[in-house]
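Record 1 of the preview.
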Amino acid sequence: QHLFSDGDRAQAMYFVLNGRLQYFQGANPDEVEEMPTDQEPRPVREREWFSEIALFSGGEHYGWMEAVTACTVLKLDAGQMLDVLRLYPSSAWLTAEYATSFVRLLSEPYVVLSDLSDGAEHTEIVAGMGQDPRRALSR
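->
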């Protein structure tokens, strides 16, 4: 069973609570005759998240996500996140700072757009934030 396909509208972030999925960058592997050799599926496991980009920039998915085993996945809808942030203005400020840095990083020429999250990228996102938000995160 697939969760989304390349080109689908990205409207939520997902957290894997249990089970395993796999992600293909680009087109659905069933729709192309031969996948390029660099298009091996990337495993997505418990305690990982993906499609964070949907919360801050919307747009479309950059690949294909499918379940490998039975999974439980928590979906955080971008619109619902905004409703929650309205209740917690101090968190909204910090989230806006993070989002600004996140979107700025996406515009860098060396960044390959993907639905997957990578810990190293989050280090760059935080490093790109101002001093006050970084202090707030360290508390």
